[in-house]
Amino acid sequence: MYHGDIEEAIQMEKVIQVTTKERIIQAALTHFAEHGYEGTTLAMIASDVGIQKPSLYNHFKNKEELYLFIADKVMSELIENMKSCIKAFENRPIDERLKQLLISSSDFIIRKQKGMMYKRFMIFPPAPLKESVRNIAVAGDAEINALLEQLYEQGSMKGS
Prior knowledge:
mainly alpha, Tetracycline Repressor, domain 2, globular
């Protein structure tokens, strides 16, 4: 095997690893959204991905770490969604910007998987992870509040 072949094999392995991890994340999101933390097993997730349960541990330490990763990812995506909306309508009057932000945020929350996951972890956090989920929610709320305060200040400066 030539040096170039080895590098190519390593790169291919990285692509496979990323793809498997992404498939794990998607399967976990689906199961956690539909069945909750308690109703989801790692075996269910592994089965959907087409891997053996022990292979999950190459990507996540345990079910708790996977759940918290998904919860944080969903919160981050909601915040990014809000930032994108604010940016897309930055030249519009403040009332229109707020309306579009509300529509966009509501759309995100009612989406089947991400919205269900968001509602589940915000309203019914798993008992063993309550404090960790609360930390994710508090940090996310702080970012959302900062975005809303920024909009409020912009509206106040323009007299809208």
